[in-house]
């Protein structure tokens, strides 16, 4: 089992992105997916940080892929998607329409925002050239095991959401702009004020969701710390660690120690609490996605 | 004339819709294969065959929604639903999952395939992919698009488009939302339910009524005031900015429903083939009333006459309606 750093879901400055990627070069991560996932309006502000990051990560021996947007609607977004396939790197598709731009015979990765719920879908994607699939975060362990078995037969590596606020929904509407009484087209990039998203609580003060532009996330940080053994047994070969502010190197090191059996899942979970925004973990190992097996 | 596609949660609602002028009715089997898997709703295999015969006698079509994502290890349940829909004489099936579409194209090539809104095909590339790979003939567009975007999509595709015009409003891209799963463990994609009643609890402190979903408070209303159903994305929440200034309100969407009646002429000009009414969970009286009003509207549209002012407004949830994403300012 190894670690994949997913694309940053939030809107960070080019400087913050550059220093984040620089920190990944000597981290235990096996691969990194980068690029803009959530909102194409953000990209001009930090896209110049992508080529040097790719170069440095490749030089450090990491596998690197570029993500598509999660929701592609505009003409320029379709063009952007098509252009991704000309960059000479694997593309991780997070909107199925990207497959329409895939050059014949080209392999690709499938991100967690593509609906892969069953063997039929996984096989269809594998036969189109999928080599890696990060499964949707809402899948229960029983489904993960069935899919991992099917994936093995197709030569596809299976990854799951290992750490980070869970992407729960994507919309045409920008909730960050709405919170500032603005529309999406006049958002003034207010999502940049909240580098881990903006928290949404219930009127009774329960910590609940986090908005990030057009995206809605869980407010708890999903962590598979306590599920590593079960996931390994199910045939999962990689955990996706999603970028956040704070000591990301310590988070990656903790997961690396855990999958190498140098640190127990319970100890990792305890170590993570002060390192994550909001200090609350979930792993869906109960009746709901918000559940946490650690009590 | 634009085709009017109407909901039927029960055989009685189907008959009511057909008699009120539906050109087509959509419905599903009583299990997790369809995205309105609510207790007391949906069709047995026998019901379905009878419903198709009834509709066909009156010149209406029946579209069978098999639009959840098959559970890993349990695909035969969904494959059987496809075979049974064909056997019952369905005019089309409405599908969302890639694996199921591939199975349908291979094993039921003569059964017309529509792409469910749950597939969230939001641009021409996605639609053309589904058309080429699986022979999809019609796509139900997700509710994230403006009318202008719908017109642009229609210029680049060869399949028919169908859009929602009335009823419940998803504010997230459908088929890509696991909010309900996070709060309750039950999701539209996996279980065919959103914010299920089984996970709703009300508490009454004498002054206010509090509605919780999976333990999370969705809204609190003064006693005696109308209390909308606690659908997660229509809840009242609170959010503070970095400086600690908090706002409380409907952060995602107000408890409104969709009413795009006034946009029918624009949607027709945008090349939309069919108009869809949401509400398989609704009573047959509601269905009959809405269908009658919309049939009059599409007939007026086809005849180039002004749309009749209808009594639809009082049928909408919480008495408030929106044109949703069809208007750019909604975003």
TrEMBL record, chain A:
Required cofactor names: [4Fe-4S] cluster
Residues binding [4Fe-4S] cluster: 39, 174, 187, 191
GO molecular function: 4 iron, 4 sulfur cluster binding; metal ion binding
Keyword Cell wall biogenesis/degradation among record annotations: no
One Pfam assignment: Peptidase_U32
Top-level taxon in the UniProt lineage: Bacteria
Pathway(s) served: Cofactor biosynthesis; ubiquinone biosynthesis
Keyword Iron: yes
Gene Ontology BP terms: ubiquinone biosynthetic process
Keywords per UniProt: 4Fe-4S, Iron, Iron-sulfur, Metal-binding, Ubiquinone biosynthesis
Residues spanning the membrane: none
Coiled-coil regions listed in the entry: none
Main function: Required for O(2)-independent ubiquinone (coenzyme Q) biosynthesis. Together with UbiU, is essential for the C6-hydroxylation reaction in the oxygen-independent ubiquinone biosynthesis pathway.
Oligomer status and interactors: Forms a heterodimer with UbiU.
Family named by the database record: Belongs to the peptidase U32 family. UbiV subfamily.
Database matches in PANTHER family: PEPTIDASE U32 FAMILY, UBIQUINONE BIOSYNTHESIS PROTEIN UBIV
This protein's name: Ubiquinone biosynthesis protein UbiV
């Amino acid at each position: 089992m190894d670690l994949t750093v997913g694309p940053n879901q939030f809107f960070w400055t080019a400087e913050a992105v550059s220093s984040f990627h620089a920190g990944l070069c000597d981290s235990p991560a096996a691969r990194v997916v980068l690029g803009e996932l959530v909102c194409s309006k953000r990209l001009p502000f930090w896209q110049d940080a992508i080529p040097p990051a790719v170069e440095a990560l490749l030089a450090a021996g990491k596998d690197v892929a570029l993500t598509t947007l999660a929701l592609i609607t505009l003409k320029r977004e379709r063009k952007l998607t098509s252009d991704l396939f000309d960059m000479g790197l694997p593309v991780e598709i997070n909107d199925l329409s990207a497959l329409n731009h895939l050059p014949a015979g080209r392999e690709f990765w499938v991100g967690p925002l593509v609906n892969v719920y069953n063997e039929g879908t996984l096989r269809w994607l594998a036969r189109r050239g999928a080599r890696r699939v990060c499964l949707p975060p809402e899948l229960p362990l029983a489904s993960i095991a069935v899919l991992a078995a099917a994936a093995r037969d197709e030569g596809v590596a299976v990854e799951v959401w290992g750490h980070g606020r869970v992407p729960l929904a994507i919309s045409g509407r920008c909730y960050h702009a709405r919170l500032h009484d603005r529309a999406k087209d006049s958002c003034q990039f207010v999502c940049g004020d909240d580098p881990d998203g903006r928290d949404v609580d219930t009127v009774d003060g329960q910590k609940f969701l986090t908005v990030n532009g057009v995206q809605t996330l869980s407010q708890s940080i999903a962590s598979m710390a306590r599920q590593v053994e079960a996931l390994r047994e199910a045939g999962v070969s990689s955990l996706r660690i999603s970028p956040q502010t704070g000591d990301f190197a310590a988070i990656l090191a903790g997961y690396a120690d855990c999958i190498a059996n140098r640190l127990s899942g319970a100890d990792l979970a305890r170590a993570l609490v002060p390192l994550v925004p909001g200090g609350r973990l979930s792993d869906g190992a109960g009746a709901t996605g918000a559940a946490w097996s650690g009590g | 004339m634009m085709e009017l596609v109407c909901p039927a949660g029960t055989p009685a609602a189907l008959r009511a819709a057909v008699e009120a002028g539906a050109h087509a009715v959509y419905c599903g089997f009583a299990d997790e294969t369809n995205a309105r898997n609510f207790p007391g709703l949906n069709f047995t295999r026998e019901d379905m065959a009878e419903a198709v015969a009834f509709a066909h006698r009156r010149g209406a079509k029946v579209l069978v929604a098999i639009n959840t994502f098959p559970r890993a290890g349990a695909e035969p349940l969904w494959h059987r639903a496809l075979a049974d829909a064909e056997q019952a004489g369905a005019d089309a099936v409405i599908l969302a999952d890639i694996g199921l579409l591939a199975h349908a194209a291979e094993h039921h090539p003569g059964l017309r395939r529509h792409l469910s809104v749950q597939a969230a095909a939001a641009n021409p590339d996605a639609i053309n992919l589904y058309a080429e790979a699986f022979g999809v003939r019609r796509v139900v567009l997700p509710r994230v698009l403006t009318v202008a975007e719908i017109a642009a999509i229609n210029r680049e595709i060869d399949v028919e488009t169908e859009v929602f015009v009335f009823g419940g409003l998803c504010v997230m891209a459908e088929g890509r939302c696991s909010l309900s799963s996070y709060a309750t463990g039950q999701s539209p994609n996996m279980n065919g339910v959103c914010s299920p009643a089984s996970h709703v609890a009300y508490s009454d402190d004498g002054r206010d009524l509090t509605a919780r979903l999976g333990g999370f408070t969705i809204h609190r209303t003064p006693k005696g005031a109308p209390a909308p159903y606690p659908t997660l994305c229509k809840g009242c929440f609170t959010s503070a900015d970095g400086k600690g200034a908090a706002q409380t309100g409907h952060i995602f969407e107000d408890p409104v429903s969709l009413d795009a009646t006034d946009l029918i002429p624009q949607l027709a000009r945008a090349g939309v083939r069919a108009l869809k009414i949401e509400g398989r969970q609704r009573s047959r009286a509601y269905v009959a009333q809405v269908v009658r009003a919309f049939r009059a509207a599409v007939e007026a549209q086809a005849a180039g006459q002004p749309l009749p002012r209808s009594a639809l407004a009082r049928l909408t949830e919480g008495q408030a309606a929106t044109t949703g994403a069809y208007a750019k300012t909604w975003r």
